[in-house]
Records
---
Amino acid sequence: MKLSKKQFKQDFEERLTSKFATDITKAGSQEKYAALASVVKHYYTKIWADDNEYKDETGKKQAYYFSIEFLPGKMLKSNLLNLGILNTVREALAELGINLDEVAESEPDMAIGNGGLGRLASCFMDSLASTGLPANGNGIRYRYGLFKQKIIDGYQVELPDSWLNNGNPWEVRRADKAVEVRFGGEVWLEDDGKGNLLPHYKNQERVLAVPYDTPMVGFENTTVNNMCLWRSEVPQDLDPKFQNLEYMRQTSMLSAELYPDDSNYDGRLLRLKQEYFFVSAGLQRIMRHYKSTHKKDVRNIADYIAVHINDTHPALCVPEFMRILVDEYGVGWNRAWDTTVKVMSYTNHTILSEALEKWPEDMVKHLLPRIYQIIVEIDRRRTAELLPKIGATLVHNTRIIRDGQIHMAHLSIIGSHSTNGVAKLHSDLLKDVELHDFYEIYPERFNNKTNGIADRRWIQISNERLSGVLDETIGTSWRHDLNDLVKLEVYKDDESVLECLQAAKYDDKLRLAALIKERNGIVVNPDAIFDVQVKRLHAYKRQLLNVLHILKLYFDLKDEPELDVVPRVFIFGAKAAPGYHYAKSIIKAINEIANMINNDKTIADKIKVVFMENYNVSLAELIIPAANVGEQISLASKEASGTSNMKFMLNGALTMGTLDGANIEIFEAAGEGNNFVFGLTKDEVYEYYRNGNYNARDIYEQNPIVHRILDAFIDGTIPNISMEGPEIFDSLTTYNDEYFVLRDFNDYVRAQKELETLYRDKKAWTQASLMNIANVGRFSSDRTVKEYADDIWHIKAKK
Ligand code: Z2T
């Protein structure tokens, strides 16, 4: 949009006065933020309304991304950038004596997601709007987002994330578009006299679902999509027996809290309620809109909408859509089923068995009696149809209902036309191993969509320093098409470009060093290697392997204080699920090891260990630009994709990684020698599983270095971990090291030595960094969403 500084200043000052009866000299930063956000909102409302009208008039097919999590982070700068007014506003504010970055700090992170899955959904929201694709989000407006993490005495302590306390300037409450979602009670079928069996209900619990719309503003275009989040409330006209505080409490609980588990399923009734709540509300709104805009025949709806099931949490989309078509619109079962399969598509995000959702039949039956009947009927018809064709074993292995449980992944695959994994390796594993039986029956449904990241947030906004170097070197076209970064390759031997890249990285490291000083009270050397592992704390991600390597370096230095090592700062950021005891013990151990090393004068500050508390999107935006190394060291086959790996690559860090998830595609894209690869391959891991011949204790007994490091956990060397130390020690020895940490240790140390050697050669290191940046284009989520649009949803971008 066009905006002059003069106009902006006038708008801003007026808004400050009208909202808070104050002026620039007296306003606090909260007030400045609220006024600024309000002005920005005013700027996009016209574009938003126009785009809605365009969508309704053209009646183009739209996609709906159903996700139980979104993780957008702060929205102010993203909206400014996408509106094309970031620089104008920054300069105009400066003229008023206001620093935009300071004002932007006041916005709380919108963190209604845990990690990778929720952040991916938000990257997609940005990319869908920015590529002009008509596609919307659908989720839950949790009153409390992911907990805030404090570290007290080295332990993680969780505090509530009350992100809505100062209001949310971006959302619009649409009370007129509220719908009702019903739970429990009894259902029976009665003939309507015309030969149709219709459901009748009694004693249902009714919940009002009120939508809150947040606009997703496209980058320098005219597209504004919608992220619809539902809040649960008590229906206004509820009959008197429900008009009580207890019912209100029950009802509001549905959208009160995000479940804080990443890649782990919590089988609580409230979670199942949440899943049905946003699925039913979302589909009802879609149907209403479909009817009201064009009065099109509902039987053609598959030509107008696509519904995406982001992991299995929204899998009830399948039976709920069937219910709406069959019960509410009188569509025949077969036609309804064809339509449902055409409309639905599903993404799998993990093969970890503890994450697979399986709900007890009884629970579903009591909570959602009609949905239960429909699932039973889907399963019955499919079994009858397929038994003669494919035989009992395949049918049994792929049943939706088995052993008293409803398998949500099975429901999602069977009820949709597309199942995708999130990186090549992961999608292959789905086909060849984890979902092989389904692949035999429905080979054409399986495909890969390698994840991507919203590069606008992950470089243009978070790394203005590097962005500037890129502009000066290759022009600005990369801001519109990340593939254009490949233009950087011809500067691989250009000393002045390499120096500019180094200078940018150095500045970003200074910025982070200042933050570390402020938050952790630790002074770090900006010339040291900044070696970063930021992600959820999980055994399979192997933060512990990183820790063992740190201890090795530490003992090497203790043995030989004059040892010539390149100084390193090891930086961690990680939240553990509150109920994940082992992950919390690792956090405690990292913090105690950090204290031990950072305060040991004898090693002369050669290594520092920093655990930054409360890792979230905003902190990622500060840490990742400053990284020299990104640690991506999960056990091969366990990390479906990973997405922080792509953010590190974009910001010129080199990856220290295993052959897992999207790392493989990153290594291939960046080219041989530009990253560090180590560890077991997925085939080797599966070979161990087949043979059952891994023996971790042997490694402990036979490798003196490993022996000494592990003993440090139990012999008092690492202080204050008398509970956690033995727990960690035992997990690696007695319990046979589930994630092959000890097996990969030697190769990890080997790769770390190579890394250190390369870092000593500043030019060679920077060239490798440049090659990573130059080849990151394919990891833009713009590419990813275009593939979804073309191959799965069949939606077209606005010209
Ligand atoms: C999650 O963040 C991921 C997978 C899940 O499986 C659940 C959650 Cl909350 C149920 C992550 C994967 O672990 C990660 O590899 C991937 O990059 C990310 O989803 C996005 O696909």
Note: The first strand starts at residue 62 and ends at 66.
---
Amino acid sequence: MADQYARTPAGAGPPMLPSIRWDEPPEGPVLVLLDQTRLPAEETELVCTDVPALVRAIRALAVRGAPLLGIAGAYGVALAAVRGFDVEDAAERLAGARPTAVNLGYGVRRALDAYRVAVDKGADPERAGAAALAEARRLHREDAEASAQMAAFGLTLLDELLPGGGHRILTHCNTGALVSGGEGTAFAVALSAHRAGRLRRLWVDETRPLLQGARLTAYEAARNGMAYTLLTDNAAGSLFAAGEVDAVLIGADRIAADGSVANKVGSYPLAVLARYHHVPFVVVAPTTTIDLGTPDGASIEVEQRPGQEVTELTAPRTAVAGVEAGGGMPVAPLGTQAFNPAFDVTPPELVTAIVTEYGALSPVTGDGIAELCVRSRQG
Ligand code: MRU
């Protein structure tokens, strides 16, 4: 079951409501999400009391972005455990809610493993639930720490790549506090450049069809007082041609063992443009986004979303409220088929560097990716 509460008008200036939080009102534990389908018009929290509600929220993009999906998945397992639902079934449903962001399955597995270990040691359901929740909280904290480290490494890299300062950065989709336990991935780097007085402009791709750039990144940039300009995705080429982009910074949903990067659809064309115009194309992602089990880009499953998201002008709605995507203003003749992949894949040779919480990898090679994973396992 899900409910909505705590409405506040959206406006300039932090703090924003947390993108995710665990709460324990008298009626029982709940997972509270900042409903990203309602932004930027209003900050509304969505309260999930069970896993089906959370799965609907994930599919409707009320909660989204790779690192946050991992955190949500872990809390979802904890929710099932502490509320006495079937934990194995809940984990399976959560992990399958969206296919591309590897963090979702990773977060689910972390909490599930903690739960299973506790059960194997003879813990009663309450203590096993507490173990799953503690693991979700740990992942949440780790993600915040990784975010701060990526921001620092990313800014150092930018300063090296662009010694003149006054960075003009193009970004795609949304990669800020809305997707993270901290300040995000690519956006966190831009934010640290802003705080250091070295961000001249953040170019924000609107990110068709669900407008994560226009609705969410512009929202976060405005709240942080950053100099930003919104553009249609199609306008990026003109911007490169005019010499107005110094670097591209994006996040990732899955990084394959060979360094191929799946991210929001529209990222790959930016990488091609960046290469043609000799502009660095930098991916910022925690090592939890690396999937050594996926050998290459062709093996990454790309989520296909409903065609209505393209044939109608609409923001994603909360399926929780019983309204699936669609129901917007038609922009194509009735019955038009649409191709609507949520992500695309950029080959490693087009990626200048991948910035993780362990530093920047450049050039991007399979060996380098494997080494990063070894370092992340060593902690
Ligand atoms: O479909 P979404 O909005 O979940 O897609 C999110 C993205 O593509 C982000 O760029 C990606 O998850 C990286 S966020 C750190």
Note: The chain has eleven helices and 17 strands.
